[in-house]
Amino acid sequence: MIELMSDLWGYMRAKKKIWLAPILLLLVMLGALLVFAQGSAIAPFIYTIF
Description:
The protein has 3 helices and no strands. It is mainly α.
């Protein structure tokens, strides 16, 4: 996982695509929210957003 992130960061720096970093961070955070909230009491509220 660390190697993937370092390769992705190297690509973004080489191709001047640093603007992709906030988008990727948002996607990772959203995915983590869905995974961690799946078994909790706030799951019905998360699913109403989508």
